[in-house]
Amino acid sequence: MKALLIIIDGAADRALKSLNRKTPLEVAHKPNIDKLAKDGITGIMDPITPGISVGSDTAHLALLGYDPFKTYTGRGAFEALGAGVELKPGEIAFRTNFATVDENMRVIDRRAGRYIEEAKEFEKIINSISLKDNPDVEIFFKHTVEHRGVLVLRGKGLSRFISDTDPHKIGVRVLESKPLVDTPEAKKTANVINEFTRIIYNLLKDHPLNRSRAKRGLPPANILLLRGAGVLPTIKPLSEKFKIKAACIAGIALVKGVAKAVGMDIINVPGATGGLDTDVLAKVKYAIKALRDYDFVFIHYKGTDAASHDGNVWAKIRMIERIDSAVGYLIERIKLDETYIVITADHATLTEETRNHSGDFVPLLIHGPGVISDDVDMFCERACLKGGLGRIRGLDLMNIIMNYLNKVEKFGE
Ligand code: ZN
Ligand code: ZN
Q: Which ligand number lies closest to the CA of residue 250?
């Protein structure tokens, strides 16, 4: 028996005015997913607990069976792992932005024009930095996409409990990193970051690469803003917890990083962009192949969440419909009597109100051999309220799936 988990990021929503008080999942034409709901069991799920709005990282930890309150150690670590950076215990990882500051270190553009052609050359410069005040700490930087990257501090006695240098808005100065706890480690790490920030500005402000950018009318990439300090979480991998081989197919670094942290193999799929333009079918094709070698395969689709952040309800609906067609391709090609298919969202994203994540519940369906079906015949928030699974927590999901696979150990005798 195998299981395939499909998470449609931020797919859940509220009853929207523009849709006559229906949700995008209710309006989308998705015959394949609805058929799975009809033949399977459904319910609703609070990714963490009712009303708690969650990030994609903490939600995925919960959905993969790890209590985020115990295992979450900062976003930077997941971004680094997802970007393919090896992270060792004790090393501190940050998410970074190339940005543009003026001579007073005031942020003019948080993305330095977004597309940094010279990123690989800047990467080399950053990796050649050695710290004078903190010679025992090594800097490692990897550019990822556009203006984004990952920075890792390697050395002894470091802490993730320090504040960001990224002010998260323009018109204000780059922030000084401060220790968030009163420990020598936090003080040292804040000091390292502040020294690094000074050095990088001095290196980049008049650098020929930036002079050439200026000539072409592009904003200089003269600072690296840091945020989301994190360390590797100490986690018992899925292979030990449930004795399974698990793989992840995702387009975005954050989700790949969470999957890697819990011990999943990452399958990189060409055309998986993590956006609305992602190749929905390619992910499914790779998943079908992966199901031969793995007990548990997880596919993540991000486009729905991106559409909600943009406030674009019809882009969200179209993305759901595209995913449905990929699910149609899938169910014609896998052995449904040997595979459990689970479909849900990691959280709701409110397309009309906040254009951000919320603490609303999400719908959930499980289809597979021996599953007792309920009367629900549609995969959406409203219909799944009547589902046989009732209302569960995200943290229960993995146990429920592993129970169907008969992988859960007996409690007691
Ligand atoms: Zn998400
Ligand atoms: Zn989001």
A: 1
